[in-house]
Amino acid sequence: MLTDSRIQEHNEKLADDHAFRWGYMQEWLHRKGIDAEHILQQLQAYQVAIPSWALGTGGTRFGRYPGGGEPRSLEEKIEDVGLLHALNRASGSISLHIPWDIPQDVQAIQNLLDEHHLTIDSVNSNTFQDQKDANHSYKFGSLCHTQSEVRQQAIDHNMEVVEYGKQLGCHTLTVWLADGSNFPGQHHFRRAYQRTADSLKAIYNAMPEDWTMLVEYKPYEPHFYSMIIPDWGTSLRLAEYCGPNAQVLVDLGHHLPNTNIEQIVARLLHFGRLGGFHFNGSMYGDDDLTTGSIKPFQLFLIFCELVQAAQDSAVQNPAVAYMIDASHNTKDPLEDLLQSVQTIMTAYAKALLVNTKGLFAAQEANDVVRAEEMLKDPFLADVRPLVAEAIRRNGGALNPLGLYRQLDIRRQLIDKRGKLAVATGL
Ligand code: PSV
Ligand code: MN
Ligand code: MN
Which residue ranges does the record assign to the Xylose isomerase-like TIM barrel domain (predicted)? Predict the structure, then answer.
């Protein structure tokens, strides 16, 4: 379906146009005194994980419109991520959700991962749905539940998720809790928090020492009066309570409208507790739209904080896990993911071009306009040739989405898996 020679052929067709645009970009960078090779090295090293649950059409609670050819098993999900990675060389890992993605034959899964040059970046627990044959229901919470048997079931599930992760060489557990309340009076806020903290700590203590726990927050949904971990402050406090290998995960959609997410990112970096991202696009809340589709400037500002922190030896933050968490109803999911990765790399590339020294000087001088212009200049630049060159040098396609369409990959997947093939999971 997609071979290296197909990619070469595609790149050769676009070579002339790319050479012209890349040449102009190189000259522009040179005039600015920016080392293009250094920027390229950083872009070439960048990877963002693909969530197994984004490979099928998401849908809403009102309906779902599958486009066909969706992956029906973990094996087919790995094949889809392998395809994305072959196209852009920047999607070299996959986030799994247990129990949706339980590996039946670990060795066979590992072989398939190797074949596609993929790793498992994180395993995600699921205590937001009751599982078949479960002894206890999560209707009134999991790690926060009033009854210890329910909490223990949720703790055990998380440990089982870690076990699967261990078998596949993963070192990160992501915990997102749907726990919360719908009506005033339903929860004793302080006690519910403490039960959650102690449950998380029990999981943390049982994890291998070289594992990281990422604690995700979300202000509302599925509960609409209170969530047990509604904000980054609660996640941070819980991470601190658990220990040094617990970190905060920032899902871009998990904020109330107009929240200054870049400032949250800076704070967490400052405290050395930024563990990971779930990238997506948001207009109102947890919309799970394509990354950067609504607020590209905010995405760029977030990357500016990450780049500045990486250049600052005073920042003691562990490596950040970059992941996408998006899924919706109207696009081909693979096209959506290709767009997302491209947009993320574009935002990163722009952030790498910021003249940080000049920016800091303007900040010190309280020159507000100059400081703002120092950001706007790279933000408004067309860095697509830079991103394309990084992908090309890694062996990928100059236009990953273009090649995906040109090869009619969705039709090939439908032919292979069927029109009615619907992804397992959500
Ligand atoms: C919840 O909204 C969330 O963002 C969490 O990351 C989940 O694990 C994921 O979506 C999939 O349901
Ligand atoms: Mn998420
Ligand atoms: Mn979400």
Answer: 103-287
DSSP per position, 86-110: HHHS---EEEEETTTT--SSHHHHH
Nearest CA to ligand 1 atom 2: 286
The identity of residue 105, as a single letter, is D
CATH 3.40.50.2300 fits 46-351+395-417, yes or no: no
Which pLDDT belongs to residue 205? 98
Helix, strand, or coil (residue 246): strand
- The answer to whether the CB of 278 is under 6 A from ligand 1 is yes
Q: Give the pLDDT score at 116.
A: 98
> Under DSSP, is residue 268 helix (H, G, I), strand (E, B) or coil?
helix
For the residues 332-346, what does the mean pLDDT come to?
98
Ligand 3 centroid – CA 302 distance (Å): 18
Please give the single-letter amino acid code of residue 158: N
pLDDT average, residue stretch 97-117:
97
Interface predicted TM-score (ipTM) of this complex, two decimals: 0.99
* Residue listed under structure tokens 């020492």: 209
Tokens in use for 325? 């968490």
Q: What is the pLDDT of residue 426?
A: 62
Residues 6 or more apart whose Cβ sits within 8 Å of residue 210: 171
Tokens 């809340």 locate to: 285
Side chain identity at 420, as an amino acid letter?
Answer: L
- Cβ of 101 below 6 Å from ligand 1: no
Q: Are 192 and 152 in contact (CB under 8 A)?
A: no
Instruction: Please give the share of the chain, as a percent, with pLDDT higher than 90.
Output: 95
List the residue whose alpha carbon is closest to atom 8 of ligand 1: 176
Residue 331, C-beta contacts closer than 8 angstroms, at least 6 positions apart: 290
So where are the chain's domains?
46-351+395-417
pTM here?
0.97
Say if CB 270 and CB 307 are below 8 A apart: no
Question: Is the shortest distance between the CB of 389 and ligand 1 below 6 Å?
Answer: no
**Beta carbons within 10 angstroms of residue 372's beta carbon:** 12
Any idea which residue has 């020679």 for tokens?
5
CB 342 within 8 A of CB 397: no
DSSP state of 49: B
CA–CA separation, 119 vs 108, rounded Å?
Answer: 14
pLDDT at site 340: 98
Nearest-CA residue for ligand 1 atom 3 is: 176
